[in-house]
TrEMBL record:
Entries under Pfam families matching the protein: FAR1
Domain FAR1: 11-104
PANTHER family named among the record's database cross-references: OS01G0519700 PROTEIN, PROTEIN FAR1-RELATED SEQUENCE 8-LIKE
Protein name: FAR1 domain-containing protein
């Protein structure tokens, strides 16, 4: 198969992994040594996240029936390699046989917790209307076909909303400064000043 961009190829394999029931890990990225091509990526190797073997020290951290951030490795051989050829991205190596159980359409694999650009745009719009996060999550879940189909949690939406709030705060201050600068050119007697705190945030404005 061929893809127009590496992102398209990665999204394809990630979507396949979600349906099949495993998580993807990008384990290697090769770049060109040509100065003319400015260190461009030419090959990406993706594997099942159970590739390799669990270290002895990690085994001690795996506790049955409890949450654990340590992945129990099974030396799974599933792999997909994509390479850039003539401006297109092509699958140059593939092995899809797992040596462990799969959990199709699980919501809890790290590589599947993604938001589309459309969803991010919608969150920004709803955030501007001061809609509560839980209601934003409800809207997103409805569009996905139910909460079971939402590949991320309320916490992920809250984190993204926090970045929006920071952007809004920064852009609001920039607009104020631009307005004051314009006013200063129109009226030479106009002056302004603002004071910053330890984190370089505007604390007061005169």
């Amino acid at each position: 198969m061929q893809f127009k961009t590496k992102e398209e190829a990665q999204e394809y394999f990630n979507f396949y992994s979600k349906v099949a029931g495993f998580s993807v890990a990008t384990v290697a990225i090769s770049r060109t040594s040509s100065k003319k091509r400015n260190n461009e990526v030419t090959r990406i190797t993706m594997k099942c996240n159970k590739w390799g073997k669990t270290k002895e020290i990690d085994k001690e951290c795996i506790v049955p029936m409890r949450k654990s951030t340590v992945i129990a490795k099974t030396d799974c051989k599933v792999i997909m390699v994509i390479s850039e050829k003539g401006g297109m991205w092509e699958i140059t190596r593939q092995q899809l046989e797992h040596n462990h159980e799969l959990t199709p359409n699980s919501r809890f694999f790290r590589s599947h917790k993604y938001m589309s650009d459309e969803e991010k745009c919608l969150i920004r719009v709803l955030k501007h209307t001061n809609l509560e996060t839980r209601r934003i999550v409800a809207v997103l879940a409805y569009l996905r076909g139910g909460m079971d189909h939402l590949p991320y949690t309320k916490k992920h939406v809250t984190n993204y909303a926090a970045t929006i709030n920071r952007d809004i705060t920064n852009s609001d201050m920039m607009e104020v400064v631009q307005m004051f600068n314009k006013k200063q050119t129109e009226n030479p007697g106009f002056c302004y000043s603002f004071e910053l705190d330890g984190e370089n945030k505007v604390r007061s404005l005169f």
